Amino acid sequence: MRHDGKKAPVSEIRAFTEEHVGEVATLFLRAMRGRRAAPGTALQNYFREIFFSNPWASADLPSLVYLSEGAVAGFLGVVPRPMEFRGKPIRAAVATQFMVDRERYRGPAAFELLKRYFAGPQDLSFTDGAAEATHPLWSAAGGWGAPLYSFNWMRPLRPAGTARAFAHRTTGLIRLATTAVTCFAPPLDYVLSKMPHEALRPPVSNCASRPVDAARLFEWIRETPSRDPLRPAYDRSSFEWLLSQAARARCNGDLRMATVHAPDGALCGWYICYTQPRGAASLLQIGVRRRDQFDAVLRAFFREAWEQGCSFAKGQALPHFLVNLSNEYCLFRMANTSTLFHTRDGELKETILSGQAALSRLDGECWLRFAVEDW
């Protein structure tokens, strides 16, 4: 009973089930997109596919809904993921689409959802797509930010084309002025590519990139030893499902998978990326057999991005290779602490904070289509 004599709203947290899909999809459009339209079939089916039909779905690690007087007032999506920590299997639970209906509910739904999520049976809870306002909430609930995994790099490949791509993100006179100048981007980039400075010339690598399918790439990854204490644990069927899902995000460009080989044919590494002509080449994952091969593999990725007509390349910071990225003329930016985590294991916590985890854009929520589709 409240002090004003009125009954407090009856609230509870439950596991997300099929009966909640319509309400959660409606909440997504309102909270994430500012739209009051009814959700379409495609969006509702995507919620079902990701949270009920993914290869790792488990009844003891469900997504969560916050109900206020029987109606959905909040949601926290959970995608379980198997990982290895120092050679032993552990369970991770990736959080995604964390949202609360602030127009209709002003209580502690977000905090209570996080506390319930952290109390689950997983060894590690994390997300790599958090908004700026989420970090204080995670900290209050007992979680931490992972700054070494929260900033991104960008490498201009065609400087004028890069300026043109970013001009569309500005407004007013700045956008008009920049757009006017960058109408001449292709010929200007051609001239710049003939300059003697390596940062302006087309990228080169002494290694060869060879397109592969998901099944073959999985075999290469499985055969490549990892020196990182924390790493994802893939099996063939789930890895193929993951990449098939990533490939459906057509707004990001064409999904490309390639192995990288030395002149003698020996495997050096691999990469998975999206490419958009006149836009970005977005790196989802890069791997190497030996750390001294990273530069050659990175340059092979840059070369393919150039050949596909991309204006710039971008990706998540790689703690072990920050110097390498800097030497390859990459620029760094951290808008907010977007990678957040929680664990009850002190050793696991220190491993992530010190940048010793092999976490890529395929292992969090960035491969999902929620943010990039119009729905």
Task: Describe the 3D structure.
The strands form two sheets. Strands 1, 2, 3, 4, 5, 6, 9 and 15 form an eight-stranded mixed beta sheet that branches. Strands 8-10-11-12-13-7-14 form a seven-stranded mixed beta sheet. α8 (214-223) packs across α9. It has helices at residues 21-33, 41-52, 109-118, 134-141, 159-167, 172-181, 185-192, 214-223, 236-247, 294-307, 322-327, 346-353, and strands at residues 11-15, 64-68, 71-85, 88-100, 124-127, 144-145, 152-156, 208-211, 230-232, 254-261, 267-275, 280-288, 312-316, 331-333, 340-342. It contains twelve helices and 15 strands. Helix content is 32%, strand content 25%. It is of the alpha+beta class. The mean pLDDT is 91. The protein has three domains: 11-149, Gcn5-related N-acetyltransferase (GNAT) (Aminopeptidase); 151-157 and 203-333, Aminopeptidase (3-Layer(aba) Sandwich); 159-200, no CATH class. It is globular, with a radius of gyration of 22 Å. The longest helix is centred in the C-terminal third of the chain and has 14 residues, at 294-307.
